[in-house]
Amino acid sequence: MSFQKACKDIFTGCEGSMVIEMEQNRTPLLDAVEDLIDTKPAYFRIPGHRLNRGISSRWTKNTGDLIFSYDVTETPLTDDLHAPGGAIEEAQKLLSDLYGADESFFLVNGTTCGNEAMILSAAFEGQEIMVARNAHKSAMMGLVLSGAVPVYVMPSTIADWGIQGEIAPEGVRALFREHPHCTALFLVSPTYYGICSNLREIAEICHENNALLLVDEAHGGHLYFDGEAAADRRRGALQCGADICVQSMHKVTGALTQSSVLHIKNHGVRSEVLSRVAQNLHLVQSTSPSYLLMISLDCARYELAMHGECMYEKAAGLAESARSRINGIVGFRCFGKADGCVFDETRLVISARGLGLSGFALDELLFETYGVNVELSDHENVLAIVTYANEAQDLERLVGACAEIGAAYRGQGGENDTRVIMERVHFPGLPKQCITPRQAYFSAKKEVSWADAIGKISGQVLAPYPPGIPVLYPGEMISPEAWAYIEDFRKKGRHIHGAGKNGKLEWIKIIV
Ligand SMILES: Cc1ncc(COP(=O)(O)O)c(C=O)c1O
Question: What is the pTM for the complete model shown?
Answer without folding.
Answer: 0.94
